[in-house]
Inverse folding.
């Protein structure tokens, strides 16, 4: 079993704290590292891949420190977020070179296997400089998989991928997780993470905000108070009807028309709203969530 | 960990990388300029030691060879560190010193091809009757250029402005102060390599600098520069835009 253990890790850059006293264990299966941009995901992945020393705390792979330890790369593959590659090589030359650097016996076969796995066989002989963002992402993936690592770390791997490539990569990650590999990927999109990850670790502002399976995280996120603006054919009647239901915490008639409303139980509210409208003969013209940004979801998680 | 001293893959990638960028063109232009000027000097003044020495020392050893070393070395490390693509080399179970040694092999080869051999050729153009003159400058270019490579490799991992700082060092320390202050010879790669020319070609480019000191100083700079560069790479930080 391969396990990355982060133990009371903090990392700061001068007086800016990027990661603040985070502890987590990443075991076999797929783990999603979820958080808004600037939350510290890249810093955490850099520490997990041996490319950054924690300011305090320890990061280990099966008990071995990752920092200043080249040997860990025998079992670890990294797909960094940054796009720069060896643009003057073809995709195949790049992956073969990576296989050679790993000291593999049959570099050509290993490269072909990795390239086929990420469906880049057709484009493998094109120069990397001609690749689209999604293709670059996939050839990076092939280079990280060429030595068949037990641990795979991916920083925002779905960036720039079209829906079909995204589905394929998700399937690939799920398969790798099912094979018992330790796979961790970062993302700022909940839907992306919950489609693939068995376990989700949420980081916000450098802190470990939540941890659990996607059901638990989804509940945490949907059970928070939600704010909406409603436009209806009879705002006063609709507001009074909604206030009678326990899923609604408050409602206010806006001077410019419409209802400003706070729901405490999103699941129940989404069932009650159309039913009450029908029962009272009110037409719903518009239902707009006003704080659906991911940042507000994460802020709620941190304060809960 | 048993790691080879040099990785053929990194050497191959290094060669591709150098000639895939604009620096590759400059590397070819510099020796062409040197040879062109040497031909001109020979045509204008004939076979004369003073102008020949002035050309190969003042232009070749002080300007062309250090610039070739700067372009070759910073072109191999600085761009990969800047854009983060060095992480593909570093995320491998190979010694960081192997990575540095492999990069330096490419730099040394550039110094040989674009620095030392053109200096040898220029020496033969300027003074065909005195092969020791050409050999002295060729050898000094190779050895001095190698020391410069080690210094610039270290600069590349220490700062993102390696080329600018390297140029300032060359202009101010090696060029300006080296010409004005005698004491600089004890801490100047160009003067150390000039001492080699003096011994091989029987010239007097630098006064009062023991050959043993020059040779040992160059060896220490190459070894210490390469080792320290590898040590710095072991602690390479890869962080994104966060």
């Amino acid at each position: 079993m391969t396990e990355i253990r982060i133990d009371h890790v903090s990392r700061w850059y001068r007086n800016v704290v990027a990661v603040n006293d985070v502890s987590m264990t990443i075991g076999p299966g797929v783990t999603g590292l979820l958080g808004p941009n600037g939350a510290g995901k890249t810093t955490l992945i850099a520490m997990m891949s041996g490319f950054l020393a924690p300011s305090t705390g320890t990061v280990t792979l099966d008990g071995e420190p990752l920092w200043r330890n080249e040997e860990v790369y025998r079992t670890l593959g990294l797909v960094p977020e940054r796009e720069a590659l060896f643009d003057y090589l073809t995709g195949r030359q790049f992956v073969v070179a990576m296989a050679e650097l790993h000291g593999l016996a049959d570099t050509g076969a290993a490269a072909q296997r990795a390239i086929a796995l990420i469906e880049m066989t057709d484009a493998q002989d094109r120069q990397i400089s001609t690749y689209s963002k999604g293709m670059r992402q996939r050839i990076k993936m092939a280079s990280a998989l060429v030595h068949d690592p037990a641990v795979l770390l991916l920083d925002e791997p779905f960036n720039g991928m079209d829906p079909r490539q995204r589905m394929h990569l998700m399937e690939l990650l799920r398969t790798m997780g099912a094979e018992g590999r330790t796979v961790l990927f970062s993302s700022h999109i909940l839907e992306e993470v919950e489609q693939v990850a068995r376990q989700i670790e949420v980081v916000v502002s450098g802190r470990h905000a939540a941890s659990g399976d996607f059901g638990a995280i989804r509940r945490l996120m949907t059970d928070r108070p939600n704010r909406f603006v409603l436009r209806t054919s009879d705002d006063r009647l609709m507001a009074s009807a909604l206030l009678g239901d326990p899923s609604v915490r408050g409602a206010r008639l806006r001077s410019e028309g419409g209802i400003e409303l706070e729901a405490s139980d999103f699941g129940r509210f989404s069932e009650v709203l159309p039913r009450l409208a029908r029962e009272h003969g009110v037409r719903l013209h518009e239902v707009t969530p006003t704080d659906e940004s991911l940042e507000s979801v994460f802020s709620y998680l941190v304060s809960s | 960990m048993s790691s080879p001293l040099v990785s053929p893959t990194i050497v191959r990638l290094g060669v591709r990388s150098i000639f895939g960028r604009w620096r590759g063109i400059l590397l070819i232009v510099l020796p062409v300029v040197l040879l062109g000027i040497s031909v001109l000097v020979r045509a204008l003044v004939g076979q004369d030691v003073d102008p020949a020495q002035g050309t190969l020392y003042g232009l070749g050893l002080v300007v062309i060879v250090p610039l070739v070393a700067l372009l070759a070395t910073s072109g191999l490390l600085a761009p990969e560190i800047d854009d983060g693509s060095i992480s593909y080399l570093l995320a491998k179970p190979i010694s960081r010193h192997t990575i540095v040694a492999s990069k330096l092999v490419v730099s040394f080869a550039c110094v040989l091809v674009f620095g030392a051999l053109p200096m040898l050729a220029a020496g033969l153009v300027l003074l065909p009757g005195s092969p020791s003159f050409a050999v002295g400058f060729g050898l000094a270019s190779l050895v001095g250029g190698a020391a410069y490579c080690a210094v610039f490799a270290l600069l590349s991992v220490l700062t993102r402005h390696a080329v600018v700082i390297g140029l300032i060092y060359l202009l101010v320390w090696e060029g300006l102060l080296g010409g004005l202050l005698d004491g600089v010879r004890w801490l100047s790669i160009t003067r150390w390599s000039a001492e080699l020319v003096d011994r091989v070609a029987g010239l007097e480019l630098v006064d009062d600098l023991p050959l043993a000191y020059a040779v040992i100083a160059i060896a220490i700079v190459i070894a210490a520069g390469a080792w320290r560069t590898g040590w710095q790479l072991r602690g390479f930080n890869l962080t994104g835009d966060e």
